[in-house]
């Protein structure tokens, strides 16, 4: 049984998003224009509370072995430290799991590294049915959840009656994921120290972090020093508008993402705890990522103009020639996006953590579960 007593106030958490997230004239651009929440599935407290239980419930997998959270762990910004994740039946996923931090901010609203899901509502049903990931079919899942006593009342609370349909499962899961917004990192402290439209970075950042900020964004007033990272990783959510070609591989590499080398990147919020990096997890550390952009960008027929020497699509890859000091500064800046509060916030935590995850009694050899030390992973 999950903890059914605690009801979290997700609507209040989202309403508390700072003004530089929500105001049109925010200094790094308005985050709300990136928001992919559809008008017919807005976040409600009942919906997100149900979504949280579904997200952590191993019943969503064919053999009750894996939950969504098994590959999307809160302490990792909702990604997986394994390069490829273990599926329900011992298989491995074909790509690295993606951080779900700020998933609501992705302008064209498509999901997966290759954008193959058109919406989040469509995406959340795909891992359930994936033959490697959870191996379940939706009809069996509807029956299984209908036979689980606590779900009926929860669905009634959200949808008005206790019918359990895959459409409703998808809506609740999507609502919960859209509450995973991060706005309490060191980076955010600069806005607290200044004004929402005039952040005071020097009040909270070290000199090294200041240099990293300038290299990443050109802010404040240092456009000429900018490496242009912010052109693709946009706004204070550091999320994208659409997929881009960043030259991780050449034109002939096997995995070309959504076609022609286009890949999505998740928000860079909480990137420090989301290693390894890129769609196949090939880069182990943030320094490896910085070294890739510094010296390793591959020629690609349609490499983004933001990463070519002459600013033309498919031109020769830029070589940044960064000093060791500049590379370390970029890493230090990326680490200011770590949101310690988000990573332990109870509103995102495992509701099954205090007990057993299924109705069977725990085996007697198991040590007693104490709150906070047990996780579903
Ligand atoms: C076995 C591991 C595994 C499980 C279980 C799993 N995922 Fe994932 N998830 C992944 C991997 C790997 C990717 C990237 C796959 C790709 O892009 O091809 C991913 C991608 C995603 C994305 C895309 C994020 C983005 O920004 O585009 C979302 C959303 C997501 N998963 C949600 C879920 C939900 C909800 C569940 C449970 C119903 C779930 N996942 C279960 C491994 C897993
Ligand atoms: C042309 C657009 C573009 C620019 C400019 C760009 N990136 Fe990226 N970035 C991407 C794409 C696309 C991915 C995902 C690529 C993949 O996995 O195949 C990515 C991935 C990343 C990741 C890993 C994300 C993850 O979850 O694994 C980091 C970190 C990152 N970029 C940092 C930077 C930094 C630092 C700069 C500036 C030096 C930069 N990016 C410039 C497009 C860009």
Automatic annotation (TrEMBL):
- PTM comment text: Binds 2 heme groups per subunit.
> Which UniProt keywords are present, listed alphabetically?
Heme, Iron, Metal-binding, Oxidoreductase, Periplasm, Signal
Q: Where is this region: Disordered?
A: 353-377
Where is the protein localized? Periplasm
Enumerate the PROSITE patterns for this protein.
CYTC (PS51007)
Concerning Pfam families, the annotation shows:
CCP_MauG
Where composition is biased (Low complexity), the residues are 359-371
Q: Which residues bind heme c 2?
A: 229, 232-233
Q: What is this protein called?
A: Methylamine utilization protein
